[in-house]
Design a protein that fits this description.
294 residues, 60s Ribosomal Protein L30, Chain: A, 2 domains
Length: 294
Amino acid sequence: MATPNTVSLRTMAGCALALLLGACVTTSPESASALDQARAAVERLQSQPQAAASAGKALQDARDALGAAEAAERAHKPAADVIHLAYLARRDADIGEAQLQEQSARTAMGKAQAQRDRVLIEARERDAARARDQAAQSQQQAQMSQQQAQDAQRQAQDAQQQLQAMQARQTERGMMLTLGNVLFDSNGDTLKPGADELISRLSQFLDNHPEVRVRIEGHTDSTGSDDYNEGLSQRRADAVASALESRGVPGARIQAVGRGKSAPVASNQTSAGRQQNRRVDIIFSDTQGQFASG
């Protein structure tokens, strides 16, 4: 039979053992918090789509460290060991997160570089296309200019041939056609009926070459006063101009000038010379409407 002292000793030993076991199985708040943080970090890392491909080793190390921490907790290892292993798991998970961010940055940089290269290529292609278009336009313009020059040359040659057919001649003042005194009665300023054919040929020529202008100059011999001769020469020039206008030649293309006896082409001392001086000269511009400076 146990004595009261024996019972008391057994009771005290049981209480001490219970207290010891309770201390061993109780998890400290610090280790629990460390484990929670480690689990969250590992879960966050392994939830990333590219974790296995871009941070596989860090992910595996974090899982291993977390497993070791949880095993230490279950084995009732010291809290310091649990906290240390949880720290290693969290650190490896953070390393994996950093690797994912680096890979994401490299991917974004690669896409940006690819976009930049694509933009540059497109810009070069646009520049090349623009250059080709400009070259084609320049070539087309050059061909048009050449064609226009050839057309202008043909028009000038055609005009000169037609004028030569009307007995016009080349002078320093341009092509000139001289209408003799036979177009007018003596001292008269009215065109004779025989002048119709020549005036019609002139109007037809000007109609075929709308860019050509004419200067009509009336001249007289030295007989009579200056005022009389200037008036007569002006009226004769006006008569030719009016005849052309009546056949549809615009007045803006015609300039009529009376020069009297100021520009003889022969001596006024003979009747033959005076007859040559009584004339109407028609001076033609070039096919651009410009008169020779002479």
